[in-house]
Every structure is written in structure tokens, then in C-alpha cells.
Amino acid sequence: MADSKAAVEESVAEYYTQAFKPREYLDKHFSAFDGTDGKECVQLFIMNNLHQTLGSGVFQGKRLLDIGTGPSILSVLSASKHFSDITCSDYLEVCREELQKWVDGDPEAFDWGAYFRYVSKLEGNSSTPDDIATRLRQSIKSVVHCDVKQSNPLCDESVDPFDVVVSSFCLELACDTPDQYRAGVGNMASRVKHGGGLVILGDFKNNIIVETEKYADFDLNEAFLRDALVAHGCTDIEIKQQSVVDEWPCEFFHATAKKV
Description:
With 260 residues, the chain is an alpha/beta fold. It has helices at residues 2-19, 22-29, 42-55, 79-82, 93-103, 113-122, 129-139, 171-174, 178-189, 222-231, and strands at 63-67, 85-90, 140-145, 162-168, 192-203, 209-210, 213-214, 234-245, 249-259. The chain contains ten helices and nine strands.
């Protein structure tokens, strides 16, 4: 069993550092979205919940950190309306490069137009899709390396804690055990300033799949997540769940908490 587990961990590390191709991933899983309200999917879950949470005024401030942004901009689309200083981060250099291409306005970058149109509708058409794209580019101040398994996920980046820390479907791919997941929650919380907010989106069934590989063989639940948040100095915890059957059955969750 131990040898099997070691082999799984090795294959996960090898996949992420050598085989993951961000543009192929985006083209396969994100290009079909047409900017309308269709059947529930992970993209809509992220955009709808973050629009509601960050627009509610519960969390105030200027600086926001997104942990595990990947090559996608979904988790910071709505954030750019409320936070003028956004730091995006990811473990993989290839993901950071793909994201930076869009930030820099590279014509070869992935086309997020349909997503901007959807967020424009969420905002009551108060801003055009092009305005939102400009707003987001201006708000993203840096794209940096992160490792959620480190006590400081930003590693060598020595910065003050943030007003809000957001992470979407990151821990499912980074953590192999419940203990690692619990520690990852604490590492994220360490980047939140006193009185600031932590927002985590994920899947209790841990069914996040990239291509044909499933990367974590354990289930989570609300009690586990709540205990982890409390243990790492969080209060005012709210956890919403939504069952979704898309490519596979999922139990999406959206958790918010304040750091004390």
C-alpha cells in the first residue's frame, strides 16, 4: 500500500511539472462556454458565488490574493470591481505564463470574451465586457509563484497580509491527504490580515479530474472544513453546498470566513 501511494504521489508530481498543458486545458474545458445561463457547471459556480460574495460588501479593502489561479481568470473576474490591487498566484510556471499572456494583451492568449459578457450581465450591464477586461488587467498587479503546502504559500514573496484571500478548487489538486488539506487551509489563512476575509471554493467529493487522472483519494465534508477553519483562527464561517452532475458527480462548496 505504501509503495502504491508513493507511486501515485510521484505520478501526480510528474504530471503537474512535466505534462500539464494550460492552453490545451483551456481550449478543451473553457472554450464551449457561450456566456449564457446554461446547466450548472464549475465555471458558473465560481463566477456566480464570487460575484455575490465580493459584491456584498462583507469584505472590504484594496488588496486581494488569489491562490492557485491556474491559467484561468475566473476567480478574479468579479474581484476586479471591488479590489484594485490583485495578486494572482500558481504553482506551475506554465500556468503563470499563460495567465500573464492575457494580462499583457498578447493576441495569442485565450479568448475570455464570453466570460466577460456573462459577468457584465451579472453586474447589470453597468460595465461593458471590454471595460471589465480593461479593469481586470489594471487590477492584476502581479502573477507570482505559490505553493499551498508551505506555511507561507507565496514562498519567497515577503508581503503584508491581504484584505481578502480567495482560492478556487486548488487544495483538491495540491493535497494528497486530509492532513495536508487541513494544513493548506491554515497556510491560506496565514495570508489574511486581522479582520480580513477568506473565501474557498471546492468540491467535497474531491472529484476534480484533469484529463483521466483523479488526484486525491479522500472525501471531505462540511464539519471537516469548518473545524479546519476554526483551528486556524477563522470565525463567522458560512458554507454553502450545491450538488452538480456534469462530467462526474460533485458536491461543490463555497466557504467564507473572517480571520481573527
